[in-house]
Amino acid sequence: MDYLNAVILGVIEGITEFLPISSTGHLLIAEHWLGERSETFNVVIQAGAILAVTLIYWRRLLELIVYWREPDNFSYAMKLIVAFLITAALGLIAKKLGFTLPETVAPVAWALIIGGFWILAVEWYAAKKADIPYVSWLTAIVVGVAQIVAGIFPGTSRSGASIFAAMLGGTTDRPAATEFAFLVGIPTMYAASAYELMKSLKGGAEHEDWGALGIAFVVSTVTAFIAVKWLLGYIQTHRFTAFAVYRIILGGLLLGAAAMGWAA
Prior knowledge:
The chain has eleven helices and no strands.
């Protein structure tokens, strides 16, 4: 893998990992033109995006750890843990049952389209409700389930599924739903990345281009930091409708390309 491809894939991962447009879907699409990546490469650039979000939320994370005895912090932390444990348990079950990501464009395209209409439906629902920043136990449970659904169906978007599950679970305030989705994503994605990295290294990663991988990691971290900072400001005054429209248009274009034989 040359350095230019590494930069491109790092940018794609960084932009799409925490925006509700599916990083896995975009990277699967990119592979059709840039060539297939190793599992180690996939895991490392994802870790870069996770690191960016960890840096953005470090004060919030420190507050939850240092002042965990405060009732609000304790309750919030327990809900994060419950959501993570649900995802971890369901993820192990999915692995045991042999669920694997499809390697064709059509399923990704349909997930993008369906997810786009799902976003529109959730936004319509939330618009009829008052902005509620409180994270309930129901929210924690549905977010935990949503994360694993997104993991099974590429194109769904883990962050998107988590955010809109939280909104449906009663946390109708967009910034609050987004914060919970991102915070629960940090341990979830670190755990998944560590698992996949250990599996990859055990299988042998001696032929990895570590220089290109390092470049992609740095690019992913920087790009994700910028993208998430932008998103957190954007949702203060905007809905997620633009992302829904983007998903529907992109999914339609991909289905058209697949039908014409441009993408398998």
